[in-house]
Design a protein that fits this description.
Blueprint (H helix, E strand, L loop, with lengths): L22 E6 L9 H11 L3 E4 L4 H6 L6 E6 L4 H6 L1 H13 L7 E6 L14 H14 L7 E3 L2 E2 L3 E3 L7 E2 L1 H18 L3 E4 L2 H7 L6 H4 L7 E2 L6 E2 L2 H15 L7 E6 L14 H16 L13 E4 L34 H4 L30 E4 L5 H12 L21 H15 L13 E4 L4 E2 L2 E2 L5
Parallel strand pairs: 1-2, 1-13, 2-3, 3-4, 4-5, 6-9, 9-12, 12-13
Antiparallel strand pairs: 7-8, 10-11, 14-15, 16-17
Helix pairs in contact: 4-5, 12-13
Catalytic activity: Hydrolysis of (1->3)-beta-D-glucosidic linkages in (1->3)-beta-D-glucans
GO cellular component, one term: plasmodesma
Main location: membrane
Length: 467
């Protein structure tokens, strides 16, 4: 998991149609010393109606326990094996024989995840990814499994260079030629989907003052129109996904699908982890299940149902990091639910998120997330179309409570000219945005701000690039 950058979804439906919905799975992590046996875990999943699972290795006990269960499985080739897999086709063949052929089809392996969030791996394994994917695929061809078992690699949203608004989503420029173009071509040729890890929680946690909780939790909200594509978004989740779709479209790969391989919300966190609570976790995951199983894609691809894997099956007590990292589980190690949500269409019939709408005063009930480039400089400027009232309110906030450096726009100073509300608001908005480290949501200002990638300049006035 990684700090994520953006987005939005479809309104919560009151009338359900379960005929052609998407699919819900779970991530079965095991960084803990108190979990039930694999046999008991498989029994738990079957009892709960969970028919898809993703694991982070190819543990023999787990794959044997899944044998004959009918549960579809995504296995993982860890990052540390990418180098050998890429360099030696014989290693890839042996790995597939030992970890896939030995169990399939009794254990219904449907996909192999090659690495996990490789682009942020500190061991610099990105250069091995494409060759490793191809060698594993060729091994599947050798054993005649390539039609039933797909190969992909989960990416974090930090792989995006631009992510707001969704319509301008693009991949990091340094990854396009060496990684994304060959990867997407491989996925197209093999009929596989791009695996993406999506965590609205991290965006909300960092920017709770500007992101409505309703927007993050799939609750009713007025939505926001993406000026680039004219689509209205109602949740952070869908906008994040559509930013990836837009990035794929920019490279002419509109036909490649997405599988959400991780998403979730923690039921507990440290005091500074805003939004980490049992109520919010139940709302996010419960409403997400409803959103997926009732069918339909994103605003950009409305007819493509989603397959989504919740993170994670259990609270894992040996995970490093803040308290939230150990509390993403749907179940305690004693197999009791952390909170009560359904996993099936039948269970949805009696499910209800009773919490009343909670519109953030900072956003006035609107949801918009702004983010800069993950690999380049950006600036925040004011939109003249926002209207005088919004521009003035944003300017007052930035120069007052927001702590922006507004001295340069005072009479006689360098940036006083042009003496217009839009120009002064732009300078103040950008000062606030840069002081906040250009993080998600800090170029919102009630919908009056937006991000640009070229440095604004008015006469002698140059906008700062950071503090």
């Amino acid at each position: 998991m990684e700090l994520l950058k953006i987005s939005l979804i479809l309104p919560i439906l009151c009338i359900f149609s379960f005929a052609d919905g998407g699919s819900i799975g779970v991530n079965y992590g095991r960084i803990a010393n108190n979990l039930p046996s694999a046999v008991k875990v498989v029994e738990l999943m079957k009892y709960q109606g969970i028919n898809r699972v993703k694991v982070y290795d190819t543990d023999r006990a787990v794959l044997k326990a899944l044998s004959g269960s009918g549960i579809k499985v995504v296995v993982n080739l860890p990052n540390e094996l990418l180098s050998n897999t890429a360099r030696r086709p014989s290693f890839a063949n042996a790995w597939v024989l030992r970890n896939v052929v030995a169990y399939h089809p009794s254990t219904t392996i449907e996909a192999i995840a090659i690495g996990n969030e490789v682009f942020v791996d500190t061991h610099n394994t990105t250069r091995y990814l494409i060759a490793a994917m191809k060698n594993i695929h060729q091994a599947l061809v050798k054993y005649n499994l390539h039609d039933t078992i797909k190969v992909s690699s989960p990416v974090a949203l930090s792989a995006l260079q631009n992510s707001y608004p969704s319509s301008v989503g693009s991949f990091r420029s340094d990854l396009i030629e060496p990684v994304f173009k060959p990867m997407l071509e491989f996925l197209r040729q093999t009929g596989s989907s791009l695996m993406v890890n999506v965590y609205p929680f991290f965006a909300y946690e960092s920017n709770a003052d500007v992101i409505s909780l309703d927007y993050a939790l799939f609750r009713q909200n007025p939505g926001m129109v993406d000026a680039g594509n004219g689509l209205r978004y109602f949740s952070l989740f869908d906008a994040q996904i559509d930013a990836v779709f837009a990035a794929m479209s920019a490279l002419k790969y509109d036909d490649v699908k997405i599988t959400v391989t991780e998403t979730g919300w923690p039921s507990k966190g440290d005091s500074n982890e805003v939004g980490a609570s049992m109520e919010n976790a139940a709302a996010y995951n419960g409403n997400l299940v409803r959103r997926v199983l009732t069918g339909g894609g994103t605003p950009l691809r409305p007819h493509e149902d989603l397959t989504v894997y919740l993170f994670a099956l259990f609270n894992e007590n040996k995970k490093f990091g803040p308290t939230s990292e150990r509390n993403f589980g749907l179940f305690y190690p004693n197999e009791k639910k952390v909170y009560n949500i359904p996993f099936t269409a039948e269970g949805l019939k009696s499910y209800r998120d009773d919490h009343s709408p909670d519109h953030s005063p900072a956003t006035g009930g609107e949801q918009r997330v702004s983010t800069g480039s993950s690999n380049g400089q950006t600036w925040c400027v004011a939109s003249g179309q926002a209207g005088k009232d919004k521009l003035q309110a944003g300017l007052d906030y930035a120069c007052g409570e927001g702590g922006a450096d507004c001295h340069p726009i005072q009479p006689g100073s360098t940036c006083f000219d042009p003496n217009s509300l839009e120009a002064h608001a732009s300078y103040a908005f950008n000062s606030y945005y840069q002081k906040k480290g250009r993080v998600i949501g800090t170029c919102y200002f009630g919908g009056a701000g937006y991000i640009v990638s070229q440095q604004p300049k008015y006469g002698k006035c140059e906008f700062p690039t950071g503090y």
